[in-house]
Amino acid sequence: MSVELWPVFCSVCVCLSNVLSLIILEEQPHSVDMVGKEDLLIEEVCKLYDQISSLDTLKPCKNVNTLFTKLVLTCMPPSPIDVTKLSTKVQEIRSKLIRLCGEAEGHLESHYSTIIASYNNPLNQLNIFPYYSNYLKLSLLEFNILTKHSTNVPKKIAFIGSGPLPLTSLVLATNHLQNTIFHNYDFDPLANSKASCLVSSDPELSKRMFFYTNDILDVSNALKEYEVVYLAALVGMSVEEKNRIIEHLAKYMAPGALLMLRSAHGARAFLYPVVDTNDLRGFEVLSVFHPTDEVINSVVIARRYPMVLLPNKCCSDEIQALKPLINHGNNMIEELVIEEN
Fold it and tell me: What percent of the chain has a predicted confidence (pLDDT) above 90?
């Protein structure tokens, strides 16, 4: 199959995923318990990992497209599996698989960014990207979440990890936040160059969308400018990397600013890192959303705590007394499952 046929193939596979999962469930003997289903899932994921890790390249081609489509369809159906309780061996495979997914996703976005930029009006051709409809749904979901927890339309948003095809920023800027300024951060200069090329074709949007080549850990006071900060799913692939970034954001984001994070739930955690809400120190977790349709990422929204000023000679008992107030928000997480409708 040529790369050009990949969008059609991918969309067909996604449409079939729910049907296939229903057929599989109907054909499974009633004697197969949940543990058995999880074992089958892990076995299939590990088999796909072996095949993917042996590929010569992760750039879009027939083998790459086929294997990653199988992986997505395997992990997409809702599953109660808790990846934190997997064996050490499977945990290692999951970590390596997430990095492979990240590398392949980067190649895919770069490939389609080049194709889209070749048109006279690139921003009218975004639907060429095979997962464009997913981004439309995810961006609408995140906009609705943002609206629920913010009384004002944000004037300036930062998106960390925007990549060569910054679809979230583009969809939000054109469909939902037409007067908001977007600052996109990525440490890859080539990714920013490709993204800038797409936006430069639109005179209006190029006045509101800017790209910065930075490691976000090197950005400090500038973070205070943003009312909302988006953190892409693959920025910080390990727990340690993710937590280091979150701690940095907690240190420099403006008090009361919102942090929108992408996470994963169930078997989808084989594709993307999971954000543990207990690790969001310095933030009040407002809501956690777990989609069950073809939108893979869960969404976590949190608010940067206001500054708490303590007296200079505050005793340890008084500090301990403040902790329940500071942590109160983490005990009021609203978890919703967004059905396909």
Answer: 74
